[in-house]
Inverse folding.
């Protein structure tokens, strides 16, 4: 399998697991949206916001709750179906960040939550600049592993040993791949830490909803069973605290 086909397979893997994704993926803290407003230079309330690669609507719903006039863009059948089921009042259109189905200068803010790395910046950056109004902003963010937490660092090592894929490079390196090849945007970066306490089963279902696991089938089932036993030994009360650093990049359109 070529790198391009592997990337495509992983990008489409979420559609069959949309319900699992919606039920178990982490959300985002209120402080994140405070920082977005600060860096964008305007409140979310009343802003015309486009959430691209919206998935099941985790970020979209939070933007809507802050008073944004938000529309979602999502390419996947399964994810879009789950979105409509959970958020019938929020409009969603089908499309990708590389070819946005939106008019020129029609948005105050474009957001990509856990989604920019599935685009090609050579296309998605000019598309963002086309759709943004002058003075608008592009915001990209990822929940990344807090590797100073020992159990999280140890788990990342076990994932790498089992799959031969470094989840830290995969996930924590996403923002490094956001660079504009032609320097048309200048990102400001902030990091927002937060955490959630959840049952081990929810944590494992969260892990299993990531593309690394979705494309490895039976091997993933084996790993998650072994990981569950390991975590239960380390956390006999059956609860873990997932700690995240939200890696945020914001650029304004002049």
């Amino acid at each position: 399998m070529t790198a391009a086909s592997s990337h495509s397979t992983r990008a489409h893997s979420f559609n069959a697991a949309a319900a699992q994704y919606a039920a178990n993926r982490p959300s985002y803290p209120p402080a994140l949206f405070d920082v977005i407003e600060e860096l964008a230079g305007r409140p979310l309330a009343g802003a015309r916001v486009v959430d691209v690669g919206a998935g099941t609507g985790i970020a979209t719903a939070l933007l809507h709750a802050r008073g944004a006039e938000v529309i979602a863009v999502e390419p996947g059948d399964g994810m879009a179906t789950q979105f409509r089921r959970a958020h019938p009042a929020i409009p969603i259109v089908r499309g990708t960040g590389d070819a946005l189905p939106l008019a020129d200068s029609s948005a105050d803010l474009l957001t990509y939550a856990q989604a920019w790395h599935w685009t090609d910046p050579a296309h998605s950056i000019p598309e963002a600049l086309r759709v943004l109004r002058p003075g608008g902003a592009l915001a990209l963010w990822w929940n990344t592993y807090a590797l100073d937490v020992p159990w999280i660092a140890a788990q990342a090592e076990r994932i790498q040993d089992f799959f031969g894929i470094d989840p830290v490079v995969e996930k924590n390196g996403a923002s490094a791949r956001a660079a504009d090849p032609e320097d048309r945007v200048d990102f400001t970066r902030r990091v927002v830490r937060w955490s959630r306490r959840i049952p081990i089963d929810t944590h494992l279902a969260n892990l299993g909803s990531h593309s690394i696991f979705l494309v490895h089938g039976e091997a993933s089932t084996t790993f998650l069973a072994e990981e569950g036993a390991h975590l239960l030994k380390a956390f006999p009360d059956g609860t873990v605290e997932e700690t995240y650093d939200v890696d945020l990049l914001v650029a304004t359109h002049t």
User: Anything to note?
Assistant: The longest strand covers residues 132-145.
